[in-house]
Amino acid sequence: MAHHHNTSVNLDEKFVFSAEIKKKLFILIGAGVILTIIGILLAMSTEHSGHGASHHASEVTSTLVADAHGDHAHADVTSHGEEAHASHGEEHKPVWALRLIKNLWHNNIFFAGISILGVFFVAFNYVAWAGWSAGIKRVPSAFGNYLWVAAPLTVILFVVFGHDLFHWTHADLYVEGSDHYDELLVGKQAFLNVPGFIIRTVIYFASWIFCWSKLRSFAKNEDIDGDTKWWHKSVVTSAFFLIIFGITSSMCAWDWAMSMDPHFFSTMFGWYVFASWFVTALAFITLIVVILKENGYLGIINENHLHDLGKFIFAFSIFWTYIWFEQFLLIYYANIPEEVGYFVQRLKSDAYTPIFFLTLFLNFFFPFLVLMTRGSKRLGIMLKIVCVVVILGHWFDFYMMTTPPVLGQNGGLDGIFFFMELGLGMVFVGVFLFMVLTALAKLNLIAKNHPMIQESIHHDVF
Amino acid sequence: MEKGKNFVFGVYDEETVLMSAVDQIRSKGVKIHEVYTPYPVHGLDNALGYKYSNLPIAGFLFGICGTITALTMMIWMMGFDWPMDIGGKPYIPLPAFIPITFELTVLFCALGMTGTFFVASNLNPWSTPDMFDPRTTDDKFVIAFDLASNKKDSAELSSILSESGASEISTKSIAN
């Protein structure tokens, strides 16, 4: 039959990370750096002309939150932006610097997550004995290589800029009698403390890199001798990784994102961050597979594999929306001040509210409507459009998580928007792709000795 | 010739013979009424040239009905028939309606699609499925021709069946 692919296809493909592709990536990174510098200069110039604006904005937050809580004791619950940092007797960083630091952290956790979620994709496909994905497994498995960048960057950013990013790192919050004494944070101190944060972060990355390296070395051995024992070992390592990841994926979300709003807590936050990372990782996997296919690689991959990847993006976009909305619904219903502040800040702001609803459009309505039909899931161009939109949408989702705690009510935007944000985003995309493609070129592009590679070649979705 | 619908059918022993028989018969321009198999045969729907099902469209329409039912019901109940103050929320709190709207959309969609599928594929409770040979529920395969929809006569169709590898050939009439 026409759609049954020839079994005599070459499985011995190797991806060549050519100088041309490298050049393109360096141009992307270079353009990102230039945009970031333009953004910084623009932000500096507007800040000098209208200095009072940001302070005014913080006061607005305080009033707003106080109104929402009906309780002035909580007035500064969510307004520890520039105002709070300034009042800790430290050097008052200008808004553009805070904005730069925030953007570094925002992109750092976003791409760290995508990287480990690629490994997660490989792991659950091993544990599920999935055959269809055998032909594309090397793509997500290469994502883990970026962990080598993410791990040191996360620790360094926390150690250097911890006070700007994390309100709870300030020592005087825990001194009884001090102006900033915070009973709620004292209660959380057993978990939220600087050494604890660093130790946990190191454990997350160490366990992830350990499992990823194991899976990579098994894959390499499988390519060399074709023994099925490497597949069995991969299944066991994947199962072990999934247990670890079940815990660490939620915990790192509490540490890296939720604790930026240290008074806020949501039992769904770990899943929310996971869902956002996962959809983005799926979009990156699909995008890379489609582009490789267009450039003559991955001969055994056809529209049936794309169909399944499309279903993954479609399904997990709905999953993300479900978590995103349920988290809001529970908080809306229960109306507890510490929780509600998070949404008051995001839904009563000129800077954030449009982005808040933009994420819903980009991450739900767009993929939902475009990928609903069978035909569009099997069409490379449709998938490429949806992938780019979804990646951008979830990048905005992380923007929404990380910006208000650091920059207060107006996001430090003051009318000029996004040069710095987009520029740094491009730099991170460039570095991420550089690391991924480097790893992709190291092993065979197709797992030629995978015991289920024939099933993948004959994969057929009606 | 008897009243009702008249069929010629061939019995096949092997899936591979059946698959090549389907290709061979269709290439001769003979219209196949139906193929009966003891288990789902991968690729058979493509070989028979079936078009992609319209069931998803039915599903979409049923889903929309569910959405409208849920929203109308809750807005009427909570907003007009018996308004209640729950935690100071508005009388029509849309966020709180979303889970139930979702549930009813899925429920209507699932039940509607199941019902449509049963009716469309003649599996509804009041239908009598055509049974050409009881062994198609065990280990045999059957290809059946409806005489009314083919120009060829019974003898020609029988020879086409035997050429394609059928192990037994017979005829059957089903009352309308």
Can you give a write-up of this model?
- The complex is a heterodimer of chains A (462) and B (176).
- Chain A has 462 residues and is mainly alpha-helical.
- Chain A has helices at 19-49, 52-69, 82-86, 95-127, 138-143, 147-165, 183-188, 194-225, 229-256, 269-294, 303-334, 337-347, 353-370, 374-377, 380-407, 419-442, 453-457.
- Chain A has one domain.
- Chain A is built from 17 helices and no strands.
- Chain B has two domains: 5-52 and 131-174, Alpha-Beta Plaits, CATH 3.30.70; 55-120, no CATH class.
- In chain B, 46% of the residues lie in helices and 14% in strands.
- Chain B has helices spanning 15-27, 44-47, 55-81, 94-120, 154-163, and strands at residues 5-12, 34-36, 141-146, 168-174.
- Chain B has a four-stranded antiparallel β-sheet with strand order 2-3-1-4.
- Chains A and B meet through helix 11 of A and helix 2 and helix 4 of B.
Sequence-ordered SSE layout with sheet pairings:
The complex is a heterodimer of chains A (462) and B (176).
Chain A: H1 19-49, H2 52-69, H3 82-86, H4 95-127, H5 138-143, H6 147-165, H7 183-188, H8 194-225, H9 229-256, H10 269-294, H11 303-334, H12 337-347, H13 353-370, H14 374-377, H15 380-407, H16 419-442, H17 453-457
Chain B: E1 5-12, H1 15-27, E2 34-36, H2 44-47, H3 55-81, H4 94-120, E3 141-146, H5 154-163, E4 168-174
Antiparallel strand pairs in B: 1-3, 1-4, 2-3
